[in-house]
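Notebook entry, cofactor series.
This is the third protein in the set we're modelling with a bound small molecule. For this one the ligand is thiamine diphosphate. I'm keeping the input format identical across the series so the outputs can be compared line by line later. Sequence and SMILES below, as received.
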Amino acid sequence: MHRVRTVLNNLVPLAPLIHNAVGPEGFASWLLRSGNASCTVMVSSTRHYNAPVQTEPFLNGSSSAYVEEMYNAWLADPKSVHVSWDSFFRNSTAGAAPGQAYQPPPSLAAPGRNQVPVTSIAPYLGGSGAPALGGQINEKVIDDHLAVQAIIRSYQARGHLVADLDPLGITYADLHGTYTDRKGAPPEQVVRHYMLDEADMDRVFKLPSTTFIGGKEKALSLREILRRLETAYCRHIGCEFMFINSLEQCNWIRQKLESPGIMEMDHDEKRLILARLTRATGFESFLARKWSSEKRFGLEGCEILIPAMKQVIDKSTELGVESIVMGMPHRGRLNVLANVCRKPLEQIFTQFAALEAADDGSGDVKYHLGTYIERLNRVTNKNIRLAVVANPSHLEAVDPVVQGKTRAEQFYRGDGEGKKVMSLLLHGDAAFCGQGIVYETFHLSDLPDYTTHGTVHIVVNNQIGFTTDPRHSRSSPYCTDVARVVNAPIFHVNSDDPESVMHVCKIAAEWRATFHKDVVIDIVCYRRNGHNEIDEPMFTQPLMYRKIKNTPHVLDKYAEKLIQEGVVTPEEVKDVKEKYEKICEESYVNARKETHIKYKDWLDSPWSGFFEGKDPLKVSPTGVKEDTLVHIGKRMSSPPPNAAEFIIHKGIERILKSRMEMVEARVVDWALGEAMAFGSLLKEGIHVRLSGQDVERGTFSHRHHVLHHQTVDKATYRPLCHMYPDQGPYTVCNSSLSEFGVVGFELGYSMTNPNALVCWEAQFGDFNNTAQCIIDQFISSGQAKWVRQSGLVMLLPHALEGMGPEHSSARLERFLQMSSDDPDYFPPESEEFAVRQLHDINWIVANCSTPANYFHILRRQIALPFRKPLILMTPKSLLRHPEARSSFDLMTENTEFLRVIPEEGAATENPSGVKKLLFCSGKVYYDLKKARNEKKLEKDIAIARVEQISPFPYDLVKKECAKYPNAALCWAQEEAKNQGSWTYVQPRFNTTLNGSRDVSYAGRPTAASPATGSKMQHLRELTALLDDAMAV
Ligand SMILES: Cc1ncc(C[n+]2csc(CCOP(=O)(O)OP(=O)(O)O)c2C)c(N)n1
Ligand SMILES: [Mg+2]
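Returned structure with ligand:
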């Protein structure tokens, strides 16, 4: 490779060095070098990722491997390569001057679009050194054309680097990832080496097919070419798109930016921008006046966000979108609710008053609340649904939630291509590049079961994050670089040019509608105040803020511009302002009459019809007919109907056979019990979705919900999709290797339709902690903060089986610690004890020991008259444990989920003679049972399994204790004492027993790590805990 580099370096540049003389023009004048005619090109042999080889167009990053291949082949045998390569390598190794080695072969092809025969423009080729002799074009003519092509490409690729993007004029992006003084910006960043002579400026060049600057013209003077390129790429819009691999998409963008007159707007459009800008500005100043010391994270400095969002929404609805799901941070949120969603101002203003809530929940601060609005879009005259998803302070965490909710809405509307429902995500500059969840969310954007068919991202790039400026908050040139991983075009735009902002918003909406892929709008703006309204920015950014103080408001600048253009009169401007001011005042007066706030006004996902007419404490039965079990069991045990054509793996055949044997014996193992739960819900028309890493097969190779044809690629069979002709849909999907992103996504999915069982499974339970933010901020507290319910199921493989510190514990204790039931309160005993407890708690935590109970608890998620998240510890070795099977008898009609499974063996024959009552949960039951058998203590020790740990089954535990009046009570667990259930159950046992009896502990001692890495140590610990438990 080094050799090739040397050759490449010798070849630079392909284009001629057209020499000097400074032109008088303002535009592109930096292309003209004064004095020094020998501006030879500096070529570094080190390439930076964003600094393509300086010899473009053909020696670029992606072609260098090819060139190397050619070169090696040529070295071996010069005849093995095309004659043009032969001549090229010959010349370059012979030391040809830069640009002289390549002899382009004559083209025999007919001229295409924008192509004119070189001969036809010969007469235009004025200036020195460009004569056409006898119809023959000399090498210089061709080289000059190549140079012009390269210039055009350079503008397309790098014009953004010198575009005027910053309304403060203090920063610009440079190639090395730092921000520097704009004055120091080296213009060579766009066109690095093509030194032009003023005399060349009026020569006419034919335009290549990769540009649209000509409009209908096929050739233009160099002066005009440069002027148009500067207009398209170096004014207030800087577009990054040349990294996109699709030529069609690149051309599409070129056309949207380059076509002459493309940005022109009529008076109505301009007036609309002004009106929207007036409202955005008026809203913030109204709040500032009325509540000067309240935090609101105002939008001042980026008021253009409101017209921008509205433009995206208008254009998208015009193109067929009916519902938009939005996620956004704190900045400008109230303004968005008021002026984009048109949430009644009264509801917003009451949030500033310290009023009681009229409904349940603990609420959230005003700049985190969500909303849902259905309204007529006045511009397009179409109905539109807008939802802003409630979010925590944790920046960007809402992104995957929005995507999941959007995906679900698309799914239930049958909108397979995302034509009707779309997501719109807003970001702050510091958070967008700093938070890893942004990357994880981008990686869901093109996955078949996770795509939302394109998201429009808008970055409020105020060039600061709290007190930190970009030099210290990122290592990438732009805050948006993360979007490049998915080939999203990125439009940087100067916030103080409203028309340019509108133009990129229009392009973004059209891009999404055309290609159904993500797109980013980076609004480069500033933050007029501190981080919030009571923060002093001069402490840390004195110069920036001095500049900001002297920067006029965009509304004033734009109004002035439109007055100058004769679009509006000063009176109209004043009138629009005053009208909005009046609207705010009236709402303010009304808001002061309110005595209560209603959390329900801020709900982002209403489930209309779900709760109505339902007894809030009535659970539907979860047992099913035996026929149903048999039918599902058989389907799960059978190859596809066209089995002869569908070759399945021998191992799968064995699994299916053993499943069939279980069905015949009327029992299920864990996998079959799960399939029965899913299949029976599908039968009832419920959508079941199971998502997570490798869930299709199952981490432990037990599930096999997708069978793969062994000789035909991608031919698969999903038995659960073929249970009943009119069943609900079944989705099982392997996810990307992300927890934060995917759990967030599934949570969002679960918010859309209460009649869906949405499950996320961790590869191993402990990986849930990389999604901790979703668990803490959304799942455990979402209902309390945002009156929003979710029935999401988290399946977390959990058990200490000698596999080391990781892969053992799903950190059960953390979930229990976040459970909201009171350890000191034994609720009144009644028929409705269990369901009332479920109703009142924030989530359910369980560790089932039998497939039947697993079956019931999954079905209960849908049978409940409300929705609660279910955190389920799931087994590993139990998946194949011969005793961990359940009879159909425990799943048929009149059976139900057992919160506690009492002792059923010999100890029950003489309860008062029982010496010890052990309580436990999950897999350790089988270890305890085995130890009890070995020690022949069946009559002395009773074992009760607490299957639902939280909410704690006080009533059933009390009953069990009462059954064995003379027994010592003990909680046995395999986890360490500071982990597992102990710290949760201990105070609750005390409450249950009211101090009348003690409960001892048998388990591992406290530990920092969840499990030992030594198998030997593991077994020693297990023996010790079993001995403890069996001591009578
Ligand atoms: C995950 C996370 N970490 C830290 C914070 C604290 N915080 C709140 S706002 C903020 C700065 C955000 O900057 P930026 O994303 O540029 O948005 P801006 O406030 O400038 O609009 C920080 C660090 C947070 N809210 N979330
Ligand atoms: Mg910022």
